[in-house]
Design brief:
Blueprint (H helix, E strand, L loop, with lengths): L2 H25 L6 H4 L1 H5 L19 H7 L3 H8 L1 H34 L29 H20 L11 H12 L4 E8 L2 H22 L7 E3 L9 E3 H23 L3 E9 L2 H9 L29 H21 L1 H10 L2 H7 L4 H4 L2 H9 L1 H10 L2 H10 L6 H25 L17 H8 L4 H21 L1 H14 L13 H21 L3 H22 L12 H25 L3 H7 L1 H16 L1 H5 L3 H11 L5 H10 L16 H4 L9
Antiparallel strand pairs: 1-4, 2-3
Helix pairs in contact: 1-16, 1-21, 4-24, 5-6, 6-7, 6-23, 6-24, 7-25, 7-27, 9-10, 13-17, 13-19, 17-21, 18-19, 19-23, 20-25, 21-23, 21-24, 23-25, 25-26, 25-27
Length: 686
C-alpha cells in the first residue's frame, strides 16, 4: 500500500473520531441521555433527569476530559474497584512501552530503514510504498542491521523491567444439608459459621425471568395514562381466541406465574444438589478448608473458592458431570470450527488489499478500480472495516461457549471468554493475515519448526501496511465509538420515544472485559512485533493508547458499574500475552538477520527468547500465587483487625443468607395481599 492510501485512511478515521468527540460533548448534556452517558452516576443518585432547553447544551466542550483526569489513582481504585484499576494499568503499561519503543523506532530505526536501498522505489515521497520504511529496505549484510539487533535487546529489557516493577496490586483480601453441617461442625468447629445447600432451580429461574419481563411490559403500559385501552386475543401469539383488555390479560398472566413460582419453590426443597456454599468466621479458617484435602477420599469432599454472592452463575450446579464433560467437548469442537471458518472473511479481506487479484476476478471493474480515490479507499480502509465487522460477533459467541463449560461464576466465564477471544484474535487477525495471500500455502510451516523464523521474516514485514491501516481503522474508530455509545444512544431514544420506560427498568452496564482486553493486547502484540520491522506503526498505537486511557477513565467513573470483582485476575493474561509478543519478535528477528545475510546477529539473538522465558518462569513463581490464593499473612492481619468490631455479629447474620438462591426469594409483582406473596418454601429451609 502506498503512503497516500494510508494518509487517506488516517484522514477518514481522524474525521470520524473528531465527529464522535463533538457529538459526545453535545449529547451527554441533553437531559434525555443521562442514562446513556452517566448511568453510574444516575444509579448512585449523583445525577437526576431534568432541566430545560438552553443554548449552552448545544455547545461542545471538553470538560469531561478534565473530570476524567482529576481523580488520583487511590480515588479511582476506591470508586471503580480493583478490576477497573488493573484494566487502566494495561493502558499505562502500554503507553510506557510504546513511548520508549516509539522514540527508538521513529528516531533510530525508521531513518535507517528509509536510507536503505534493498527495494528499488524511485517514486516521490507521497507515492512511496510503506515497505520502503520497513526493515525489508535495509541492504542484505549491512552493518546497520546491528542497530536492529541492539534495539531488540534493549526493548526486551525495558518491557521486562516494566512488567516486573509495574506495581502489581495485591488482591483485597441423611440430607445433603445434614451431611455438610455435620462434617464441617466436626472438623472445623472453631471457624465454621453456616452453609447454604444448592437446589435444582432451573425451572424456577425461567419462571422468574418470565415474570420480570411481563412486569416491565405491564408497568410500561400503565405509565401511558393518556393512551386508549388496547385489546389482544388470548390465543396463540395473540392472533386467536376472544379479545380481552391487554392490561387485565397481563395482570392475570402475572398472577398465574406467581402461583407457579410459589408451587415450584415448595417443590424445590427436596431437589438438593450435592453442592453447598460454606461460610467461615475467619478468612484464615476459610483458607485452611480451601487448601487442604478434606476427606480420605479426594473425590468426596471437593472444595474451591466461592465467588461473591452476586457473581454466582446458578445454572452450573444443576448440570450433571456427564453433561458438563460433553459440553466441554462440544465447546472445543465449536471453537475450533469457528476459528477455521473465520479464515474465509480473512481471505476476502486480503483479496481487497491486492487490486491485481480483484481485477483478475472481476475484469469489468478494472476501470473503476484504477481510479485513485477508489483504490486508496479499497486498499487502505475497506479491508480493516470488513474484518472489524466480522470480528464484532466473536465476543458474544465466546461468552455463550464459555457459559456451557461448567463455571460457577460469571467472572470465571468472562475470564475464559477473554482467553478464547485473545487466542482467536491472535490467530485470525495476526497469523491468518500474515500467512494469507502469497504465503497462504505455507501454513504447514508450523509442522517444520526450523523454517518458522524464515517464513515469518518473509511474511510479517509485507503486512505492515495492512496492520497500520487496521490500527487506524479499528483502533481509533472503536475507541471513539466507545465514548459515543451510539447503539445505547439509539436504543435509549427509541425507548423514550415509543416505550417510555420507567426508571425501574434502568440498570447501569458493566464493562465487557472479555472483548476489550483482547483488542488492547492485539494492538500491544502489533506494536512489539513491528517495533523492529516497521516502526511507523508506533505513533498510531501511541495515539490509540492515549485516547483509550482518558476515555476509559471517563467510562469507569461515569458509565460502568462493576457486577463482580476478580481481584485483578485479568493481569496474568496481559503478562502472558506480552511475553508471547516478545518471543515472537525474537523469532522474527532471527529470521530477518538470517535473510539479510547476518548470521552472527541471528546467532547472538538466540539467547534473547531463552532469557525472556526464564524471566517469565521467575514471574510465574513470584507473582502468580498472589492471583490464585490470598496470602496467609494478610488473612490473619485482617481477621485480627476485625475481631473487636461491634458489627461482626450483624455481618455473620448476613453471611448466613448471602448465598441463598435468589430464585427462592419472595416475589412481589401483582397487587395481592402479603400472605399470597410469601413463598411456600420458608426462608429457614433455604
Amino acid at each position: 500500500m502506498i503512503l497516500s492510501a494510508l494518509l487517506t485512511s488516517v484522514a477518514i478515521n481522524l474525521g470520524l473520531c473528531l465527529l464522535f468527540f463533538t457529538l459526545y460533548s453535545i449529547l451527554r448534556k441533553q437531559p434525555g441521555n443521562i442514562t446513556v452517558y452517566v448511568p453510574r452516576l444516575v444509579a448512585e443518585g449523583k445525577v437526576k433527569e431534568g432541566g430545560h432547553f438552553n443554548l449552552e447544551r448545544l455547545l461542545p466542550t471538553a470538560g469531561w476530559v478534565r473530570k476524567a483526569w482529576e481523580p488520583t489513582e487511590e480515588e479511582f481504585l476506591l470508586n471503580c474497584g480493583l478490576d477497573a484499576f488493573v484494566f487502566m494499568r494495561i493502558f499505562v503499561f502500554s503507553l510506557k512501552v510504546f513511548t520508549f519503543g516509539g522514540i527508538i523506532g521513529m528516531f533510530v530505526l525508521f531513518p535507517i530503514n528509509y536510507m536503505g536501498s534493498q527495494l528499488s522505489d524511485d517514486s516521490d515521497f507521497q507515492h512511496k510504498s510503506l515497505d520502503s520504511f520497513s526493515v525489508s529496505n535495509v541492504n542484505n549484510g549491512s552493518n546497520r542491521l546491528w542497530i536492529h539487533f541492539s534495539a531488540a535487546y534493549v526493548f526486551t529489557g525495558v518491557v521486562c523491567y516494566l512488567l516486573y516493577f509495574r506495581g502489581i496490586p495485591i488482591p483485597p483480601g441423611s440430607t445433603c444439608t445434614d451431611a455438610v453441617e455435620r462434617f464441617f461442625s466436626e472438623y472445623h468447629p472453631s471457624t465454621y459459621l453456616s452453609h447454604s445447600v444448592v437446589r435444582r432451580s432451573n425451572k424456577l429461574h425461567n419462571l422468574i425471568t418470565d415474570a420480570d419481563k411481563l412486569y416491565k411490559r405491564l408497568t410500561n403500559l400503565k405509565q401511558k395514562n393518556d393512551a386508549p385501552k388496547k385489546q389482544t386475543r388470548e390465543g396463540c401469539l395473540g392472533l386467536f381466541g376472544p379479545k380481552v383488555d391487554i392490561l387485565d390479560h397481563y395482570e392475570r398472566r402475572l398472577e398465574n406465574i406467581e402461583d407457579n413460582v410459589r408451587k415450584e419453590q415448595s417443590s424445590v426443597a427436596s431437589k438438593e444438589v450435592p453442592a453447598a456454599f460454606v461460610s467461615f468466621k475467619t478468612r484464615f479458617g476459610a483458607a485452611i478448608a480451601l487448601n487442604i484435602q478434606e476427606g480420605v477420599n479426594p473425590t468426596e469432599w471437593i472444595t474451591e473458592e466461592a465467588p461473591e454472592p452476586h457473581d454466582v452463575y446458578w445454572p452450573f450446579f444443576t448440570v450433571s458431570f456427564l453433561k458438563r464433560w460433553i459440553s466441554k467437548l462440544v465447546v472445543f469442537v465449536a471453537y475450533t470450527s469457528l476459528t477455521i471458518l473465520f479464515l474465509i472473511p480473512v481471505a476476502i479481506v486480503q483479496g481487497l488489499t491486492h487490486l491485481d487479484q480483484l481485477e483478475t476476478l472481476f475484469p469489468f471493474l478494472k476501470g473503476i478500480l484504477r481510479l485513485s480515490v477508489v483504490s486508496q479507499v479499497i486498499t487502505g480502509y475497506l479491508p480493516s472495516l470488513i474484518l472489524q465487522l466480522f470480528l464484532s460477533f466473536i465476543p458474544p459467541t465466546m461468552i455463550m461457549l464459555s457459559s456451557l463449560q461448567g463455571y460457577i461464576s460469571r467472572s470465571q466465564i468472562q475470564k475464559s471468554a477473554c482467553t478464547k477471544v485473545l487466542l482467536f484474535t491472535i490467530w485470525n487477525i495476526f497469523f491468518a493475515n500474515v500467512l494469507s495471500g502469497s504465503a497462504l500455502y505455507r501454513v504447514n510451516v508450523f509442522f517444520e519448526p526450523k523454517s518458522i523464523p524464515r517464513v515469518l521474516a518473509e511474511a510479517v514485514p509485507s503486512q505492515a501496511s495492512f496492520f497500520i491501516a487496521y490500527v487506524v481503522t479499528s483502533g481509533w474508530t472503536t475507541i471513539a465509538s466507545e465514548l459515543l455509545r451510539l447503539t445505547t444512544l439509539i436504543s435509549n431514544f427509541i425507548s423514550r420515544t415509543f416505550c417510555r420506560n420507567g426508571d425501574d427498568d434502568f440498570e447501569p452496564p458493566s464493562i465487557p472485559y472479555h472483548s476489550e482486553i483482547p483488542r488492547i493486547r492485539l494492538f500491544g502484540l502489533l506494536g512489539v512485533t513491528y517495533f523492529l520491522l516497521a516502526p511507523l506503526i508506533l505513533p498510531f498505537l501511541l495515539i490509540y493508547f492515549c485516547l483509550g486511557y482518558i476515555i476509559f477513565r471517563n467510562q469507569f467513573l461515569k458509565v460502568y458499574v462493576p457486577k463482580f470483582e476478580t481481584g485483578g485476575e485479568f493481569w496474568p493474561t496481559v503478562h502472558n500475552s506480552t511475553i508471547f509478543s516478545l518471543v515472537l519478535m525474537h523469532v522474527i528477528a532471527i529470521g530477518i538477520f538470517g535473510l539479510k545475510n547476518l548470521p552472527l546477529a541471528a546467532g547472538l539473538t538466540l539467547p534473547l527468547p531463552i532469557l525472556t522465558l526464564l524471566f517469565n518462569e521467575y514471574c510465574q513463581k513470584r507473582f502468580l500465587p498472589i492471583f490464585k490464593h490470598f496470602p496467609l499473612e494478610c488473612l490473619i492481619k485482617k481477621d485480627r483487625a476485625e475481631q473487636n468490631e461491634h458489627n461482626m455479629s450483624e455481618f455473620y447474620d448476613k453471611m448466613a443468607n448471602a448465598y441463598n438462591d435468589p430464585a427462592l426469594m419472595p416475589i412481589k409483582y401483582s397487587e395481592r395481599s402479603d400472605s399470597q406473596r410469601t413463598p411456600l418454601l420458608h426462608s429457614s429451609q433455604v
